[in-house]
């Protein structure tokens, strides 16, 4: 009888600084024998198909997102395609992914995970705390942008930290 593999679902924020490291993590988990599902918007998933080797068993899953509903350009499913002025609008629009993700995740597990649902409500909900978290995310984005400027070929602290993390993970 084949041993049941543990499952991992990754749903990174729709920015290359989140998607690329998450995909690298997904590939490491896949190599270690986990069932990995990577969830994102259709345009991002389409791009990711090209990044995976044919031997990968990572499942790429699309959830709907209509940027035009939020005053964004039609192809704006990633911060890479946005001007700096539209990034905050994009962040504020991200809670619209809550219901499609919740539906997908509930279906995937075939039962409700109250703890996960609570956390989704907190981060993506319309509560004051959720709004404050998204407002703070815009402020943090400014701080990170300033901290990660590419001066003298230094990639920035967060990129360097991710590289160190992946190098350590690969050595295990």
From TrEMBL:
Molecular function in Gene Ontology: quercetin 3-O-glucosyltransferase activity; quercetin 7-O-glucosyltransferase activity
Domain of life, per lineage: Eukaryota
Family: Belongs to the UDP-glycosyltransferase family.
PANTHER family reported for this sequence: GLUCOSYL/GLUCURONOSYL TRANSFERASES, UDP-GLYCOSYLTRANSFERASE 85A1-RELATED
Protein name: Uncharacterized protein
Provenance organism: Buddleja alternifolia
């Amino acid at each position: 009888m084949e041993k049941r593999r543990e499952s991992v679902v990754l749903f990174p924020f729709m920015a290359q600084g989140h998607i690329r490291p998450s995909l690298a993590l997904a590939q490491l988990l896949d190599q270690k024998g986990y069932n990995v599902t990577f969830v994102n918007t259709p345009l991002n998933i389409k791009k990711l198909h090209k990044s995976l080797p044919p031997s990968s068993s990572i499942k790429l899953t699309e959830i709907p997102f209509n940027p035009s509903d939020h005053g964004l350009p039609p192809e704006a499913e990633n911060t890479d395609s946005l001007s700096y002025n539209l990034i905050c609008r994009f962040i504020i629009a991200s809670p619209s992914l809550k219901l499609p993700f919740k539906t997908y995740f509930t279906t995937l597990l075939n039962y409700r995970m109250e703890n996960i649902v609570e956390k989704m409500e907190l981060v993506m909900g319309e509560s004051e705390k959720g709004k404050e978290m998204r407002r703070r995310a815009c402020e943090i984005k400014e701080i990170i942008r300033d901290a990660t400027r590419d001066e003298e070929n230094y990639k920035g602290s967060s990129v360097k930290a991710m590289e160190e993390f992946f190098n350590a993970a690969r050595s295990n």
